[in-house]
Amino acid sequence: MLVVLVSGPRGPERARVAGEVVRALSSRGYRVGAAARAPSESAVRERPETEAGLLENSGASLVALVGRRRSRVTVVTSLRSLEDLLRLLGAGQRVPPDAVVLSGFDRLAGNREDVLKVVVAHGPREAQAILRGLADPVAAAVCVTRAEGPLMSRSGEEVPVFSLEEADRAGGLVVETAKRLKLIH
Q1: Are the C-beta atoms of 50 and 56 separated by less than 8 Å?
Q2: What's the number of CA atoms in the CB half-sphere (13 Å) around residue 65?
Q3: 83, 139, 146 from 158: Cα distances, Å
Q4: Cβ-contact 143, 122 below 8 angstroms
Q5: In the predicted model, is pLDDT for residue 102 greater than 90?
């Protein structure tokens, strides 16, 4: 399974780039799972007055909100590893995803060499600082303010740089890089 980490400060820019990576993969026929790191515990809890909130607050360790076409599951768990997160994303599916896009899970996936990374930053200095903390492979960097020339990964590999307006091209490059590295077929 391909795992892509979108790394950078929380915000609409990181969410946009993660969305473009998901779009690039799914438009090519891959089944894609995605996870975003919640800013706080309250962000993933149901409102207490809702039925799901009442079930959650009564002590249930797993609550499913099921609709005709969509469902959402809240699980009381702490993730200790990338493998825990991948198991959670594959739960309940007949066929596991071909790829998973993670937004904001640097602690779990940033130093993994089997995870493809994309950096999102406000500018080239911030992008370079983020790159220093990530293991290769890194497919691309997306900067709100365009950087001239490539940036360098921790191991000295060139990392192509895109502007935020080119986030869709960065998503396409993620797919190409994953295929070249044989992380996905």
Answers
A1: no
A2: 16
A3: 29, 9, 16
A4: yes
A5: yes
Q: What is the DSSP string of 4-58?
A: EEEESSSSHHHHHHHHHHHHHHHTTT--EEEEE--SSGGGGSPPTTSHHHHHHHT
Residue 142 in contact with residue 112, Cβ under 8 Å? Answer: no
pTM: 0.88
C-alpha–C-alpha distance, residues 161 and 149, integer Å: 7
- Per DSSP, what are the bridge partners of residue 140? 118
Is the four-CA dihedral 167, 169, 172, 173 of positive or negative sign? negative
pLDDT class for 110, splitting at 50, 70, 90? very high
Query: Which residue segments constitute the domains of the chain, with CATH numbers given?
Result: 2-39+77-180 (3.40.50.300)
Give the span between the Cα atoms of 145 and 108, in whole angstroms. Answer: 28
H/E segment holding residue 152: strand 151-152
Residue 14 phi, psi dihedral angles, 5° rounding? -65, -40
CB 146 within 8 A of CB 161: yes
Span 45-60, average pLDDT: 76
Amino acid identity for residue 76 in this structure: V
Please give the torsion angle defined by the CA atoms of residues 50, 51, 54 and 55, in that order, rounded to the nearest 10 degrees.
-140
Question: Which one is predicted more confidently, 15 or 91?
Answer: 15
